[in-house]
Amino acid sequence: LLLVAGTCSVASAATAAPIADQIDPSLVGVLGEYGPVNASRGESVQDWDDILQALNDYQQEADVDAIYAEAVPFYGNDSVVLWEPPIETMLYKGTNDTDDVMAVYVRVIHEILSNMTLYGGDVVLENLLDVYGQKPMASTFMALLNMGLPTADEMIVRMWKTNLVSDAVNYFASLMSDQLNPETGNPDDPTSGITAVLEAFFSDYDSIVWKDLTVVMGKPLGPSIIPFLKNMAPPQNASANATSAANDEAEAEELKKRTDELFPKFLDSLRLLGIKNLLYNPYLPIPCIKDDPYCPVIDEDYTRAFAQSYDLASRGKISEERFAYDFQDALFQYFNDFGSNLEIGDILGGIVNNNTERAGRILSQDETIDNHLPQVLNNLSDNTYALAMTEEAAASGYDARLSVCMANISSAMYESPETRAKWLEGGLGLELVDSFPMAGDLSSMGSVYVDRGQNAVVFGIEGIPVIHKYFQRGFFGWLSALVNGGTNTQPFRFPCSEIDFKGNNSICAHMGYKYYDTAEIYPGFAPLDDVMVTKLKPALQKAVLILEGSHGGSENATSTFREAKEKPKLYITGHSLGGPLAKHSLAQILLREYDQVFSSITAYAFGGAMAGNDAYLSMVDEMLDSPLIVPTKLFQVVNSYDPWPYIPAVFGSENGSVQKGNVTLIFDLEKDELAKEEPLRPFKGMPSNVFLSFEGVHAPKTQYLPLARSLVSDYDYSTCEEICSVEQCGNYKCADSCAGIL
C-alpha cells in the first residue's frame, strides 16, 4: 500500500506542472520581460495570466497614446536605470497571504468603484461636490464610471508604471505648503485647510496627478477625467483681472461658509461608506472583527465587543446605521479608556496642521537620479549585497549576528500567532512566556520569551499592526500615532515620588531630580504605565523563574523578583513603532529597577520613531552610563531613505536633521556601509528612478533583516528561499538562528 501511495504521489507531482509552464503562450513574451514566476502560496495560473494581460494591454496603449509620455516617468529614456517592484508583489493572494498594501487596497478601491451605490460612494461624491457648489456634477461623474472601469489588475499595473503614489505625495506636499503655510493659508482650521487643498487640486487639471489618473483609469474613462474637471471650473469673464483680489476673497469666504455647513454631512457619509466596507467588502482584511484566529488579540475585551457588533450587523440583526454608531462610539470609548479624549477635530488636526507642510516638503521624493540604488536593491534580493562597518560603528559594540537575531524577532512580531510561533518558537528555539497589548486592546503586542539553553530573556515588540493584514488594528494604530503622537509632547511621569528625588540613591530619584521639569515624551509612541506594572513585570518575573528552574532553582512564581543563581541576560527589540516602545520599555525597566535580576540588557530598535524631546533622550543616555544599573546597551538602527525614524521630530525641523541619542547607526546605501551617526543626517527622499515607497524601504523582512545579514561576512545564504513582501521579491526567507548569540 505504501508503495502504491508513493507511486501515486510521484505521478501526481509529475503531472502538476509549475505555474510558469502553464502561462498563456501569448503572454510568455511579457513574462520574459517582467518575470520570473516564483509562485508563493495563494497564487494561481489565472492570477498570472490576468496580471500579464494587464501589462500587455498597458504596453500597447503606451506605444500610441501621447499622455503616457507625460505621465510615465522616464518614458522612452533608456539611459536611466529604473527600479520597479516585481509584478509578483501585485498579485492578490487572499486577505491572509497578501503581504503588500497596494495589492490589497487597489482591490478594495476597485470594489468600491464597481459598486458605488452599494457602498454609498455615490452619496459621498455628491456631498463632497456639494461643498464646492458642484452637486449636479455628481451624476455626470457616475455616468463616466458606468462607461467602464479598468480591471483591478489594470489599475495596479498602471499605478505602478506612473508611480502615482509618489507623485501624489509630492504634489500634495506642495499644495499643503501653500495652503497650510501660516503666511499664506489658515493652518489652525484643519477642515478649511482640507477643503482649500482639494479645491486647488480639482482646479489644477494640468497636474501630474490628474495625468497619472488618466493613465490609471484607462480608456474610455481615463480620457474623460480632465474634460470633466474643466467643466467643473467656474466660467471666466473679461473683467476678472480687474477684480481678482475681491473675487478671490469673496470665493474664499463662500467656500468657508459652505464648508462649515456641508462638511459634517460629507464626513457622515464617509463614515457610513467605511462601515459598509467593513460589512461587505471582501478584500478588506478584518480578521479581528470576524473573530478569526489569525488575529493576535482575539481574546481582548474590545476585540470581542467589535466582533459581536459586526456579527449582529452582518446577520441583519441590527441596521448598518446602528452598527456605524456602535462602532464610532466604541472607537471613541476605546481611546478614552486608554488615555485619549478623541474627537473628529483631533483626527483632522493630527493629519492637517501647521507642521504638515514642513514635513511634506522634507519627506518628498528626491528629484535626483541614482543608478547605484537599483543595483543595491537587486543585490540585496539575490543575497549578493555586502555592507562594510565603519570603525566608529564597530567600536560602538554593535554585533552583526545579534542584530540578525533581533531583526528576526522584530519582523516576526507582525505575523499571525501561528506564523509567529513557527518562526520564533519552531525556528529560533524561543519559548513563549506571555503576550500582551502595549497601549490598549488593539495596540501593538509585546511578547516575552526565554531561551533556556542560553539563559536569556527576550522582549519582542510589534510595530503599528500592518494595515494590509489587520485593517482595524492598523487603523487604530495610525489614529493613535496621529492623535497621541502627533507633534505634541507631554511631561514624562517618573515612576517614583518627588519626595524621593532628594536623599534617595535610586536611579529613578537621580533622574527625577535632574529631569523632572524638562523630560517629555511623545505619548502615542509610548507604552501605558499600567502595562509595565501589570503585564511586563509579571512576565519578566515568570521568565526569570523559568530560567532559574532550568538551572537548578524553582519555577514557583512569587510576588517579587528573586535572585536567580545565574542572572539571565535580557534582550529588547522592536521595529517601527516597536522602536520607541522598546526604548521607553528599557527606560521603565531601569527606572523601576527591574534590571537588577539580569546580568545585562541589550536593546536593538530598527527604524524607530522618536521617543521624546532632547531632555528625555539625554536622560536615557545618562542612565545607560550610570553605575546604578546593570551593563546596558541600546542600538537604534536606521535605513537610508526611511522617513519613520525622523517622525515626529521632523515636523519641527527646518532641514530634516534630528537627534535620536546614543547609539544611532545608519545603513548608508550610498556608501555601502553601516555608520554611527549622531545627530542623524537630514532626511533624503527616494531617488526619482526608484519606485519604492516609504513602506517598502521601511519593511522589516525585505530591508532591515537582509541588511543586517549583509554585515555578517560569512553568512550562509544556502538556506534562503524566495518570498514577496511589501513591493519586493527575493531570497529573504532564511533559516536564521540565535544559537550561541544570546
Description:
The structure is a single chain. This protein has 742 residues and is α/β, with parallel strands linked by helices. A 9-stranded mixed sheet has the order 1-11-10-9-8-7-4-3-2, sandwiched between helices. A two-stranded antiparallel ribbon has the order 5-6. Strands 12-13 form a two-stranded antiparallel sheet. A hairpin with a 2-residue loop joins strand 12 (721-725) and strand 13 (728-733).
Structural descriptors:
742 residues; two-stranded antiparallel sheet; 9% strand; disordered N terminus
Write a short abstract of this structure:
This protein is α/β, with parallel strands linked by helices and 742 residues long. The protein has 29 helices and 13 strands. The protein is globular and about 75 Å long.
